[in-house]
Amino acid sequence: MDKTVIITGANSGIGRAATIRFAKEGYHIIMACRNLGRGKPALKAISEETGNKTIDLMELDLSSFESIRQFCDLFKQTYSKLDILIHNAGYFKHGEKTYQLSPDGIELSFAVNAFGPYYMTSLLLDELKQSDNPRILHACSTNIRHFFEPKRIIEFDNLLGEKKHDRRYSSYKMYGDSKMALLMLNFQMAKELEEAGIHVNAVQIPAIKMTKDTMNKMKSIWKVAARLQNLFSAPVETMADTYYTITTSDQFKDVTGQLINAERKMVEVSHYSKGIIQDIKQFTDQTVYPKYAIDEKASKLLWKLANQLIEKREI
Ligand SMILES: NC(=O)c1ccc[n+]([C@@H]2O[C@H](COP(=O)([O-])OP(=O)(O)OC[C@H]3O[C@@H](n4cnc5c(N)ncnc54)[C@H](OP(=O)(O)O)[C@@H]3O)[C@@H](O)[C@H]2O)c1
C-alpha cells in the first residue's frame, strides 16, 4: 500500500480504533500523539493485532505551535507525500473552571481543537498536494447543536485570555465554541484548497464510548454524566469506520466542504423556522446544523484571527 495517513490522538478512543481500521487495510500510518509513553504501548498492540509493520509514532502536542512545527519538519524529512490527514485529537476537560491558556497564549480548547489543526494543515499542504486524492477530515461534535440557541455566539473577545479574570469560564462552552470554530474553518479551508484538489470535510461525532482515561480527565458531576452517557453510546469502532469511509471511499471522492454525520449523510444548514415545535424538530434532526456556522461576520473574524495567529508564529 502506497498510501500514508496521519491520525492525531491515535493512542486513545476513536483515534486508536481508526488506526486499527487503517492498519488492517495496510496503510502506512503516522500516529501523532502528544505523549509517547501512551503512544508506544498503543503502537505495539496495534501492530501485533493487525500485523501492520508500517506504523510510525511521532510526538505532537497540538496546544503548541512549536511542537506542531517540529512534527511537520520531521514528517517532511521522511515523507514527501501525505494522502490523508485526520484531525482527530481533541481537548475536553468538562468541569474545569479555571481559564486555561496554551503555551502560545490561546485558550486551550481553541489551541488544540481549532487553531492547532489549522496550523498543522497549513504546514503540510505541499505534501498533501503530492497525493492523487488528498483528503482532510476534522473531528467535529454534535455539541455545536447548542448554537441552535439564537443568542449563542463564539466568545471572540475572550480567546486570548482577555477576560480570564472577570468572566466565568466554562470549559464545556469553550469546547463547543472551539468545535464550531473548527467547522467554520473547515468550510473556509475547503474553498481555499479546492483549486489544489484537496478535499476537506468534517464529521459530526455523536456520543461515542469514552475511555476511562478520558472520563477521569473530567471533573465532578461531568465524570458521572460521562459514565451514564457511555451506557448508551456507540462503540469507537463505528466512528472509526466512518472516518475510514469518508477518507478512502469512492462515495466521498469528490465531496468537499461538508459536515457529514455518523450515518454518513450530508448535514445541511438548518431550514427550520421559529416556534417550539420547530425548535424541537431542529434539535433532534441530525441532518441540520446551526445557521451560525455560516455566519459571514463570525466566519471572517475567525479566518482573520486564525491567519494572524499562524502568521505571528511564522515571524
Ligand atoms: N467520544 C465522544 O463522545 C465524542 C463526541 C463528540 C466529539 N468527539 C471528538 O472525537 C475526537 C476523539 O475523541 P475520543 O472520544 O476518542 O477522546 P479520547 O479517547 O480522549 O482521545 C483524545 C485524543 O486526543 C489527544 N489529545 C488531547 N490533547 C492533545 C494535544 N494537546 N495534542 C495532541 N493530542 C491531544 C489525547 O491524547 P492523550 O491520550 O495524551 O490525552 C487522545 O489521544 C475528539 O476530537 C473529540 O472532541 C468525541
Q: Low-confidence runs (pLDDT<50, min 5 residues)?
A: none
Strand order of the largest sheet: 3-2-1-4-5-6-7-8-9
DSSP E strands, number = 9
Helical content stands at 40-55%
Ions, cofactors and other bound molecules: NADP nicotinamide-adenine-dinucleotide phosphate
Could you spell the SSE succession in H and E letters?
EHEHEHEHHEHEHHHEEHEH
Helical segment tally? Answer: 11
Which structural category fits the helices and strands? alpha/beta
Our estimate of the beta-strand percent is 5-15%
Rg calculated over all Cα atoms: 19 Å
Shape: globular
The major sheet is characterized as: 9 strands, mixed
How would you state the average pLDDT, rounded? Answer: 95
How many angstroms does the end-to-end distance come to? 38 Å
Describe this protein's structure:
The protein has 315 residues and is an alpha/beta fold. It is built from eleven helices and nine strands. Strands 3-2-1-4-5-6-7-8-9 form a nine-stranded mixed sheet, with helices on both faces. β7 and β8 (266-269) form a beta hairpin. α1 runs parallel beside α2, α3 runs parallel beside α4 and α4 (108-123) runs parallel beside α6 (171-193). The longest helix has 23 residues, at 171-193. It is globular and about 55 Å long. The chain starts with a strand and ends with a helix. NADP nicotinamide-adenine-dinucleotide phosphate (NAP) binds at residues 8-9, 11-15, 34-35, 38, 60-63, 88-92, 112, 139, 141, 205, 207-208, 210-211, 214.
